[in-house]
Every structure is written in C-alpha cells, then in structure tokens.
Specification:
Blueprint: E1 10-13, H1 15-32, E2 38-44, H2 48-55, E3 62-70, E4 83-86, E5 96-104, H3 108-118, E6 124-132, E7 145-149, E8 155-156, E9 172-174
Parallel strand pairs: 2-3, 2-5, 5-6, 6-7
Antiparallel strand pairs: 1-9, 3-4, 8-9
Helix pairs in contact: 1-2
Bound molecules: guanosine-5'-monophosphate.
C-alpha cells in the first residue's frame, strides 16, 4: 500500500500539547486514587507511548500489564470483529484497574475490552483513552479519562500507526483528506 509522504500529513496535536494533557490526566488519577493501588493495563501496540508517559505522571503505587486485541488488520477501517491476541499476566479480581487505549473510534474494541475485564470482577474499572472520535462512538459505558476529542480523521503518531509505521512520531497528525 502506498501512503502520502509524511509532510502531507496535517499536524493535529504537538508533543508539548500531548505532554501537558497527559500530566493533567495523571494528576486527576492521583487525586481519585489517593491512598489506593492500581493496575494500569495498556492495550498494545497503540497505547504503548501514551501509557509509558501517563504512568510517569502517576504517583500512587501501581503495577503495569498489557493485552492485545486486533480489529483493524493494518488498514484504515475496523473489520468489525475483535480478536484476542494476548491476555493479561495477572488477576485483576478485587483490584482497581485503569484500561489505557490510544483511541476510541466506533467503540467496538472499547466495549469488548470493558465487558471482558468486568467479568473478572475488578474492584473498579476505569477507561482512559488518549483520543476520542466522539461522533463515531457507540459505547455502553462512560469514558472516564479522555485526552482529546478529535474529528473523524485517520490519525497517526505517538503510538498510532498506518500499516505498522509512524508510531514513533512524537506528535499526532491526520491523514490528508482526499480532494
Ligand atoms: P474502534 O473499535 O473504536 O472502532 O477502534 C479502536 C481501534 O482502532 C484503536 O485501538 C486503533 O487501533 C484503531 N483506530 C481507530 N481509529 C484510528 C485512527 O484514526 N488511527 C489509527 N492509527 N488507528 C485507529
């Protein structure tokens, strides 16, 4: 698949803007979980960069874990089916869990993950997403922590990919709109 050159992508969120918002989310989590412990669960691969920055802004005791599901198969559109690729390495029963996603688009993945983890009877389950394409989303629960609400554009960078590439960009940019 050929893609536009990186210069053609439209800058959307700078690394400084992202860092500022991530620090605010960390501060909010610190306030809400003061005196408690957390398991922070990152959804790979997209949330890896966000999660690593976010946990460094959290000062309550925490453990990290990761899971991976796929719904996009490398393209621009969801396949509509969420598939487990790998699961957590620890029990979350009776624990405070924050699930960390890169982006909530249709909400299909978010609903699937939220409902799957809820069945494991955590003490609390919060959902944190860096980006939210609000206009597209149909979900059965509240998103507790949202970094940025964005328009319905395909975005890359800061962990988000296009065919596996561009995750390493420090900022977030949108695929140019076809004219
Ligand atoms: P949903 O199930 O909410 O439709 O999609 C969630 C998943 O689709 C995200 O975890 C992410 O992997 C992928 N996704 C949705 N929108 C975008 C986007 O604009 N850019 C990239 N790179 N991935 C996206």
């Amino acid at each position: 698949m050929t893609h536009p050159p990186i210069e053609a992508f439209e800058p959307m969120l700078s690394s400084a803007t992202i860092a500022e918002r991530v620090a605010e989310l960390g501060a909010q989590i610190n306030r809400e979980f003061q005196g408690q412990e957390l398991i922070v669960v990152g959804v790979l691969k997209g949330a890896a960069l966000f999660m690593s920055d976010l946990i460094r802004c959290i000062d309550v005791p925490l453990r990290c874990d990761f899971l991976r599901v796929s719904s996009y198969e490398g393209g621009l559109k969801s396949t509509g089916v969420v598939r487990w690729e790998f699961d957590l390495t620890q029990t979350i029963e009776d624990q405070n869990v924050i699930l960390v996603e890169d982006i909530v688009d249709t909400g299909l993945t978010a609903n699937f993950l939220y409902e799957s983890l809820l069945l494991r009877r955590p003490r609390s389950l919060k959902f944190c997403t860096l980006l939210h394409k609000e206009a597209n989303t149909r979900i059965n629960f509240d998103l507790d922590y949202i970094g940025f609400t964005i328009p319905n554009r395909f975005v890359i960078g800061y962990g988000l990919d296009l065919d596996g590439k561009y995750r390493n960009l420090p900022h977030i940019a949108a695929l140019p709109v076809e004219s």
